[in-house]
Amino acid sequence: MFAFGLVAVCTGCASGLNSHQKAELNYYEARGMAVEEKSPGAGAALGLLPGGGSFYGREYGLGVVNLLFWPLSILWDPISGHNAAQSLNYTATKAHVDRIQQKELADLDERLKTGQIDLTEYTLEKRKVDQKYSFN
């Protein structure tokens, strides 16, 4: 019974992405804008080693716990490693998309400031940039 409770508690430590975040990451992946900082498959595979999935996903405290509870942690650490890698990829993708959107908007602002485009063109182009990077 203790082991079941421990599994329930530890699997909640790295719950991964919620459904909105998963859909958003899929959206960016489909458009070639996603960043894969860590491989979820590698995180899951490393979860079979003592604390490996958690350490791979930069969840060091959970890694130590999983190391101490190995081999029992094999029940949840592959899931933790997969979810942690997916969360890191989501965060990296959001930062990447924000950077490229801000660069495009800064370029657009510069074109307006130098008179290369007028306010009407600027407004239309800005709307296109916002739509390009917006998930909703």
Care to describe what's here?
- By secondary structure, this protein is mainly alpha-helical.
- It has one domain (37-133).
- It is built from 7 helices and no strands.
- The protein has helices spanning 2-11, 19-30, 40-46, 52-56, 60-68, 77-113, 119-133.
- The longest helix has 37 residues, at 77-113.
- The protein is elongated and about 65 Å long.
- Mean pLDDT is 87; it is low at 3-12.
Describe this protein with a few key phrases.
136 residues; mainly alpha; elongated; disordered N terminus
Mean pLDDT, to the nearest integer, reads 87
Low-pLDDT stretches: 3-12
Structural class: mainly alpha
Secondary-structure element string = HHHHHHH
Counting DSSP H or I runs of 4 or more residues, the number of helices is 7
What's the N-to-C terminus distance?
43 Å
Helix/strand layout:
Layout: H1 2-11, H2 19-30, H3 40-46, H4 52-56, H5 60-68, H6 77-113, H7 119-133
Helix pairs in contact: 2-6, 3-6, 6-7
Question: Could you give a quick summary of the protein structure above?
Answer:
By secondary structure, this protein is mostly helical. It has helices at about 1-10, 20-30, 40-45, 50-55, 60-70, 75-115, 120-135.
